[in-house]
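Lab notebook page, bench 4
Experiment: in silico fold of construct C2
Operator: M.H.
Input chain length: 148 residues
Purpose: comparison with the prior construct
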Amino acid sequence: MKLAVCTAVIAMVMSNLASAQDVKPEDVIKFRKGAYQVIGWEMRPLGLMVKGEMPYNKDVFARNAAVIDTMSHVVPEGFTPGSDKGETRAKQEIWSDPTKFKAALDRFQSEAAKMNEVAKGGNFDAIKVQFGSLAKSCGNCHDSFRAK
């Protein structure tokens, strides 16, 4: 139920953002940072479970994986033209090489979708493997497109 509400709110925000003609670059940056904060918030317990630092909870893992999958489709909206300036760690390569950046986002979305499906099954060995793939897609994008 919470996921459905979250998805509905995100869809509403997205349609408002996409239709707004006066969206300031700093607002887009705030939106982008917020989307990544949600992803990070949901990823942290998954990483702790995979590492054995937190007990595995199938329901929590599946819920968090579903949120990450949903948010993976929100992230691209945070990279509008003009949002490359301001308080951001986004590298210029996002805008100068959009094909490479889109490929990285596509990989993240694909790995997030796979994580969502694997998490539903509850096979912890498969979950660990897929979590590694998801984390790798995050890391590759951070290495290429986020300033440290």
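Observations: The CA atoms of residues 111 and 134 lie 5 Å apart. The chain has six helices and no strands.
Next step: discuss at group meeting.
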